């Protein structure tokens, strides 16, 4: 006998489930985040429940855990002195923007490699030479470009058999993005730090690639509206698999499996802006 629909409000009679034995194998219904729904109307109810849980997470960005400030790390390693650190901090404060590492580089007080190594210590993860390993181009299509750019990351390498996804950052680790990737691909993520220039070049190369369909919708922020749009696109694409996660400023819905996926991105506004991963 087929598993019943995951929608607790589904009105299908018991005889319907007996007649639908094996329906999942026959491609009927739609799976959302691992839960099966017998119809688009039941899927829409399930999507609303998922979004009611995800939207508060998207509006309230979790602050990064306390870490030793980058300036103090460089100071302790003898890369800079106290006078240089104060000069960089004053310049950053007067300008009102920019990361400390950028100001230290402008002052000629630290090199990009020194800042990258200090960031790897700050975030307790290895340095990855992204510029020497262009395998990020092979898995660039897995994640929509707006999410890669918002999180300032690149997928350094993906091993589907072992379920390992290696993700490179240059500004610090975006744990919201890592959590979303783990939920989307049912994998284990490993974070690493890359040089800022290498990540910038990698993202430029990724922009020049042909990509799976990516649709960005700016005006929707209500779970009912978003759920309706997800179901409408699921119907149009005739997909039987949908995954929805929260990632930084977006609700990301991925339609279809790994063969020909397409992505819907709902940009969620009105939440606090991060201070830049502590740099």
Distance N terminus to C terminus?
A: 56 Å
| Percent of residues in β-strands | 15-25%
Structural class: alpha/beta
| Total helical elements | 10
Q: What order do the helices and strands follow?
A: HEEHHHHHHEEHEHEHEEE
**Sequence of strands across the biggest β-sheet:** 2-1-7-8-9-6
Question: Low-confidence segments, ≥5 residues, pLDDT <50?
Answer: 20-25, 271-278
Number of DSSP-assigned strands: 9
How would you state the average pLDDT, rounded? 86
The best one-word shape is elongated
Please tell me the total number of domains: 3
Radius of gyration: 22 Å
**Biggest pleated sheet:** 6 strands, mixed
The helix content is 25-40%
Structure, explained:
The chain is α/β, with parallel strands linked by helices. Helices cover 39% and strands 17% of the residues. It contains ten helices and nine strands. It has helices spanning 14-19, 40-59, 70-76, 82-95, 100-106, 112-122, 145-151, 175-185, 196-207, 223-237; strands spanning 30-32, 35-37, 153-159, 164-169, 188-193, 214-217, 241-247, 250-255, 262-267. It has a six-stranded mixed β-sheet, sandwiched between helices. The protein has a three-stranded mixed β-sheet with strand order 3-4-5. It is elongated.
Notable features of this structure?
3 domains, alpha/beta, three-stranded mixed beta sheet, GMP Synthetase, Chain A, domain 3, 279 residues, disordered C terminus
């Amino acid at each position: 006998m087929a598993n019943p629909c995951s929608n607790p409000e589904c009105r299908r009679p018991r005889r319907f489930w007996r007649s639908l034995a094996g329906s999942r194998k026959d491609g009927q219904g739609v799976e959302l985040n691992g839960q099966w729904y017998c119809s688009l109307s039941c899927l829409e109810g399930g999507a609303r429940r998922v979004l009611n849980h995800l939207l508060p997470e998207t509006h309230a960005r979790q602050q990064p855990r306390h870490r030793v400030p980058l300036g103090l790390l460089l100071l302790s390693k003898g890369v800079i002195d106290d006078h240089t650190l104060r000069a960089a901090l004053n310049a950053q404060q007067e300008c009102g923007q920019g990361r400390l590492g950028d100001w230290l580089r402008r002052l000629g007080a630290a090199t990009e490699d020194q800042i990258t190594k200090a960031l790897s210590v700050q975030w307790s993860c290895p340095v990855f030479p992204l510029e020497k390993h262009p395998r990020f181009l092979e898995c660039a299509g897995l994640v929509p470009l707006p999410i890669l750019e918002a999180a300032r990351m690149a997928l350094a390498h993906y091993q589907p058999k072992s379920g390992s996804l290696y993700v490179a950052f240059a500004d610090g680790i975006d744990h919201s993005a890592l959590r979303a990737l783990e939920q989307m691909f049912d994998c284990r993520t490993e974070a690493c730090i890359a040089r800022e220039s290498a990540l910038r070049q990698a993202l430029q190369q990724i922009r020049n690639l042909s990509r799976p369909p990516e649709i960005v919708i700016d005006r929707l922020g209500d779970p009912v509206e978003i759920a309706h749009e997800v179901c409408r696109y699921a119907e149009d694409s005739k997909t039987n698999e949908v995954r929805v996660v929260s990632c930084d400023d977006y609700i990301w819905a991925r339609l279809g499996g790994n063969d020909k996926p397409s992505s819907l991105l709902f940009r969620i506004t009105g939440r606090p802006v991060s201070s830049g991963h502590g740099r």
